Every structure is written in structure tokens, then in C-alpha cells.
Structure prediction request, 408 residues.
Amino acid sequence: MSNRRPAAALSEFARFLRTETVGGMVLLGATAVALLWANSPWSPAYQAMRDLVVGPAALHLDLTLAHWATDGLLAVFFFVVGLELKRELVIGELSTKSQAMLPVAAALGGMIVPALLALFVGWGSPGMDQAWAIPVATDIAFALGVLAVAGSTLPVTARVFLLGLAVADDLGGIIVIAVLFSSGLDVLWIGAVVLAGALYWWLQRKRVRSSWLYVPLGLFTWVAMHEAGVHATIAGVMLGLLTRVKADPDEEYAPALRLEHRLQPWSAGFCVPVFALFAAGVPIGGEALRAVFTEPVAVGIMVGLLVGKLIGIFGSSWLVIRFTPASRPRGLSWLDLAAVSMLGGVGFTVSLLIAELSLADHEGLLDTAKAAILLASAAAALIGAALLIRRGRARARENGDGEDTATA
Prediction:
């Protein structure tokens, strides 16, 4: 009996980490530690940790710890995203045209409008030629976490809409990363990536289940993607999309669901928080804070996340519902939908990643852009939570009035 307790405790801890609320809290805690550390007397130690180089130079993998967090740990996060995306596309909320129409349109609007607003505000500023992509992202863990806490009185269709929107948004973010931030492509290594992906697909098709094959193959795919000149996290997405999502008659769970169940706690409880620990440590003193509100790129990012996301998501949803067969999520009013749309402005993880990729050559501007992302994401979360709580109280009053009327 005593031998089972540690395993049971670990299983319970993993289940705890799978909830959006807890994942968001761990991520928030890591961000707070990074900000406090980077703005404390021990900030040189923080910078030294970020810049510590580890890894084999012979394989061109002598990277800083910050790069390992960005390129390595986030590959696990993107693998989980790929699994979620494949599941939604095949058997989930994006599996049919009628189901996918609303969240996909909302995601497209929530990417295009913020990008255009950011470009308009920061036009002509150094770094804006690629930084326009920063506000296109929505952090699925944070957004769902806020909805779980503040929007618990809303129908489950609110979560379904936000999840479908965030998954489609993740796909758009992945495409942006793959297209904009791939350089010096090596044809031979691209060929190696294709062969590795084909082998992974074949092993899935043949129902091979041995982790002794998949783990080395996954590591090789990551290295090949890195050497090919494509951002290494794309390897995680590719393998996730190639994973089988329909269970055979003799299987209790399909491989995608089984892997997502095992890896999601690691992604939410370790990989993403460690990335945040390395990425979110930016100076927020008086001068740095003033730069957030005066630097055109930073202002463009905040306008994109706080204004562009709301207009893009809600506006696209209204247009699609008004002019196509798509319907408003059951049980949600337009005000409910607006409150949920506000959560799209929580960019955070993927926005920080895009900032690191787009502003790598603008070190001072990079810190200012990260501060803008953190401020805008926090503001979007707080405004969204306030709107959700207000909508919850309004719904409670409406239901109470309805019950009183019925009783009378």
C-alpha cells in the first residue's frame, strides 16, 4: 500500500495542474518572480543565469538557458497545442464547417485587426516591420483560467467558443512564426524533417506505441528543425498534428488524448512557467515604464491587444453571425460575447515568444515590448474578469426576476 501512495499523490498533482486556473496561477507566479528578480539588487545574477551557455557546440546547440527555454521547453508546449489542434480539427469544435465558422472567423479578426492597429500606431518605427505580429496571439491557458474563475456563471458554450477561438488563434500564431521567423533555410535538413515526420506518421499508422522509438525520433526532429533554419518549436506542432486522434476498438484512449493527458501537466506546470521566468524579467522602473507609453512599438502592442483584439473578435463574430448560417453560442447574449472577446487580449506566452523573435536585434526595445505585453495582458485579464463578473450578476438578477414572475 505504501508503494502506491507516491504514485497516487503524483497523479493527483498532475490532475491539479491540468486545470486552467492552476496553470494560469503557476504561470503568473513565475512571471512575478521574474519581474521581482530582474528589478532587485540581484538582477545581475538573473541576467547571468539567462546568458549561461550550455549544450554541445559540435551540433550548434551551445545555446543560452534563455534560448533553451524558448526553443526547447516551448517545443513541448507547442506539441500539446498541436495535439489539441488536431483533436479539435478531427473530432472537436472545429471538425465541421458549421462548427468551425464562428471561432475561426473570430480568430482571424482577432489577428488581423490587432496587427493593423499596431502597424498604424507604430508605422515607421524601428522594429515595427516584424513587431506588428506580437499582438496577434492569445494565451489559451491564461484566458481560459480567467474565464474559469470570473465567468463560472456563464453557459459552457462560452468556454467552447473561447477554446475554439484560442486553438484557431494558436494555428495562426504558428503560421506567423514559421513564415516570418525562418531564415537561411537548409534544404538537406528540411529533407530530414520531412523524413522524420513521415516516419512518425508511419509509426502512428502501424499502431507502434514504444516510447523508445518516439522519444529519439522527436528529439531528432527538433534538432533537424533547428538546423534547417525554422524555429524549433514548429517541430512540436508538426508531430502533434501527425498524432492519431481516433481510438481503435481495442484502445481505451487514442494516442493524442493519452499524450495530451501525460504532457499537459509538464507543459503547464514546468515548461511554460520556466519560459516565463526567463522571458518576463524586464525592468519596470520609472524610465522603463515611461518608455512603454511613449515608444510607438510598445504603444502599438498595447493598442493591438487591448483594443484590436476586442474589436477584431467581437466584430468578426457579429459579421459572421449576421451574414452566414453561423449562430451565436447557445445561452450567450451579445454582452456575454463581448466580455469573452475581451479575454482575447491576454497575449502573454506566444506574444512574448514572437517579441523575442521579432526584436532580437533591438535589445532595449525588446524589454520595452515585453513590458507592454505584460501590462496589456494584465489589463485585458482584469477588464475581462470585471465584465464577466458583471455579466454573471446581471444574469443572476434576470434569473431571479424570472423566478419571481413565474411564482407570482
Notes: Residues 183-230 form one domain. The two ends are 59 Å apart (CA to CA). The beta strands are 53-54, 63-64.
